[in-house]
Design goal:
Elements: H1 4-30, H2 39-42, E1 49-54, E2 57-66, E3 69-73, H3 74-80, E4 86-88, E5 93-97, E6 102-106, E7 118-121, E8 124-128, H4 129-134, E9 139-143, E10 150-154, E11 157-163, E12 168-171, E13 180-184, E14 189-195, E15 199-203, E16 209-213, E17 221-225, E18 245-248, H5 259-263, E19 271-274, E20 277-279, E21 286-288, H6 292-300, E22 304-305
Parallel strand pairs: 1-10, 18-19, 19-22
Antiparallel strand pairs: 1-2, 2-3, 3-8, 4-5, 5-6, 7-8, 9-10, 11-14, 11-17, 12-13, 14-15, 15-16, 20-21
C-alpha cells in the first residue's frame, strides 16, 4: 500500500497538469481575441492616402490628406456624384456653372482655414471635401484625425439603425477571434448594413465598418436621413417646332442691315445666329458688332437670335 501512494500522487499530478493544459486550450479557443486590426490593410491606404467609401463600399480611387484636411480626386467626383466640376487643364482653372453665375477657382484659391481648396498632383486634381459638399447633394463625413484616414460619401435615404446595449468590440469579420477595428459603448447608435444569424455588419460612429454580435444590439429600426442641400434649378427654353437655324455672316455694322434680304432666299428659318463677336487678343478681349435694332427686326419676323 505504501508503495502505491507515490504512484497515485504522480497520477494525480499528471491528471491535474493535463486538466490545466486542456483548460488553457479551451480558453484559447473560446475566449475573445484582442488583436487590433491593421487599419492600413483594411482600408488599403498608405502614406497620405485617404480611403473613399461610397455608400459604404470601399472605392479603388484614393483621396489625399494634406494641409490638415482631406481632398477627393475630381475624376472620381465627376464619375460618381457630381459631373459639374470642370477642370480646365490648360488654364489650370476649376469652373462650376450655377443657374445664375459661373464660379471659378484656381490653385491659389484658399478655404476658410487658409489652405488651398484645389491641389494638383501629377495629372490628377483634388478638391477639398468641403468644396465638394457645398455643391453636391450627398452626405460627406471625413474621419481624418487618426491613422487610416477615410471619407464616407453617402446618398440620402432610409437606413437601418440599432442602439448598443453594452460595450463591445467591433471586429474585422464575424467571429470572436477576428481582429478588432474599434470599440462601441452603451447607447451608441450604429448603422446596420447586414444581419446574419449571430453577427451583424455595422457602421460605427467613429467611421469603421465591421461586425458585432447581435446580442449586444437592440431591435433594428428604420431611420430617414436627409440633408438641407437645395438643388439648383437649371432652366431651359425650348422651341415647339423643329429648329432651323442659319448663320448670318456679319463683318461690319452695315452688315446688320442685310438680315431681311438674306432671309428672303431661305425657307422655314426660325433661328438666326449672327457672327457678331470675335476675339482680338489672347487675354479674352473681343470686338462686338451686336445690334439692338437687328434683334428687334428678327423678332418682328418671328425669328429668335442666338
Amino acid at each position: 500500500m505504501k508503495k502505491a501512494i507515490p504512484v497515485l500522487i504522480a497520477l494525480g499530478l499528471i491528471v491535474v497538469i493535463l486538466g490545466g493544459m486542456a483548460g488553457v486550450e479551451l480558453y484559447k479557443k473560446y475566449s475573445p481575441g484582442k488583436e487590433p486590426a491593421d487599419l492600413s490593410e483594411v482600408y488599403e491606404t498608405a502614406g497620405n492616402e485617404t480611403a473613399i467609401l461610397y455608400n459604404y463600399e470601399l472605392q479603388e480611387a484614393k483621396g489625399i490628406y494634406e494641409n490638415g484636411q482631406s481632398y477627393l480626386p475630381v475624376t472620381w467626383v465627376n464619375d460618381n456624384i457630381n459631373r459639374r466640376f470642370y477642370w480646365d487643364k490648360n488654364e489650370k482653372l476649376l469652373v462650376y456653372a450655377l443657374p445664375d453665375q459661373i464660379v471659378y477657382a484656381d490653385l491659389s484659391t484658399a478655404g476658410s482655414n487658409g489652405a488651398p481648396m484645389i491641389l494638383l498632383r501629377g495629372s490628377e486634381v483634388y478638391l477639398t471635401v468641403g468644396l465638394v459638399a457645398n455643391y453636391t447633394d450627398v452626405q460627406i463625413s471625413a474621419f481624418d484625425s487618426g491613422e487610416a484616414k477615410r471619407v464616407y460619401v453617402t446618398d440620402w435615404g432610409t437606413r437601418e439603425v440599432s442602439q448598443i446595449k453594452r460595450s463591445e468590440s467591433v471586429r474585422e469579420r464575424g467571429g470572436i477571434k477576428s481582429p478588432i477595428l474599434t470599440q462601441v459603448e452603451k447607447e451608441m447608435q450604429v448603422t446596420v448594413l447586414e444581419q446574419l444569424e449571430n453577427w451583424s455588419k455595422v457602421v460605427t460612429p467613429d467611421g469603421h465598418i465591421g461586425y458585432i454580435r447581435n446580442k449586444v444590439m437592440t431591435d433594428v429600426t428604420e431611420e430617414e436621413v436627409t440633408g438641407d442641400f437645395e438643388e439648383p434649378v437649371y432652366k431651359s427654353t425650348r422651341l415647339d417646332d423643329k429648329i432651323v437655324m442659319a448663320w448670318h455672316q456679319v463683318t461690319s455694322q452695315s452688315g446688320n442691315q442685310s438680315l431681311a434680304k438674306s432671309l428672303a432666299v431661305t425657307k422655314g428659318v426660325n433661328v438666326v445666329s449672327p457672327t457678331w463677336f470675335s476675339l482680338t487678343d489672347n487675354e479674352g478681349n473681343f470686338r462686338s458688332l451686336a445690334s439692338k435694332e437687328y434683334v428687334e427686326k428678327a423678332h418682328e419676323m418671328g425669328i429668335q437670335v442666338w
